[in-house]
Sequence to fold (252 residues):
Amino acid sequence: MEKIVFISGATSGFGKACALRFAKQGYDVIITGRRKERLEELKNLIESTCRQKVLPLCFDVQKRKDVFNHINNMPDAWKHINVLINNSGLAAGRDLFDEADLDDWDIMIDTNVKGLLYVSKALMPFLIASKGHIINMGSIAGKEVYERGNAYCASKFAVDAISKSMRLDLLRHQIRVTNISPGAADTEFSLVRFKGDEEKANAMYKGYKPLTAEDIAELCYYVTSLPSHICINELEVTCLAQANTYTTLKSY
Ligand code: NDP
Ligand code: 8X3
Fold:
């Protein structure tokens, strides 16, 4: 039987790179996100280059009913899910606590925390049946706060806590849970954070070599490729130029 990976947020960045990496390795892939055209493009790309099957599911992880409807209505052949990559997420704004926008806070908590919980809960019966592997996309922002990180950091600290809770509560089902905590990686993340301001977004990655989406996809594949009695619980990774959330060696 083919292995199946379910990737939330596969329309760009880490999620898209994971879809390609796992498909290259012989997985069939379920790709999700809100941008339908991007899902279709990725489906065509994977089918033509990797010859693996692709199921695109277009929904917003913030909408609880939509999450459960889409997942429960998947064809039975797609329900044998071996790996879940909880990757959908974003930062919205980078403001001081007293100046931050409440809507930004809502969208980060609703997506990064509640969305991750909904997707995981909806997939639980299938992951239990397959003794699957859950990878939660945390961040170094979930290990250490930085100035103007406030609610984004809080959402990623929550992901860290959810990973630890899952590992405890799902132990009896022998489900592997890996929390991956990347540092700065050049994806659409900063463009989204700065609401389309390309100058601000590009400045985040200037003067040093950041991580790439493919680097993270490689690590996601690696943790799943180990013998099934081994669980990498935590994986914190930065580029060589970054020491922590607020110290990066830049040369201009
Ligand atoms: P991208 O912006 O490139 O990708 C984010 C993905 O999340 C997109 O596919 C997007 O799809 C999806 N997404 C966002 N909101 C929703 C939503 N409400 N419903 C469904 N899907 C959604 O960023 P990255 O690839 O960098 O980010 C992926 C994850 O990695 C995030 O959780 C982020 O916090 C985390 N991370 C990123 C780091 C970085 O420096 N880049 C470092 C550490 C962690 P769509 O818009 O189509 O819905
Ligand atoms: C994204 C990395 O350092 O910009 O999670 O918060 S950081």
Notes: The pocket of NDP (ligand 1) is lined by residues 9-15, 33-35, 60-62, 87-90, 111, 115, 137, 139, 182, 184-185, 187-189, 192, 213 (CB under 6 Å). DSSP finds eight helices and nine strands in the chain. Strands lie at 4-7, 28-33, 54-58, 83-86, 133-137, 176-182, 234-237, 242-244, 247-248. The mean pLDDT is 98.
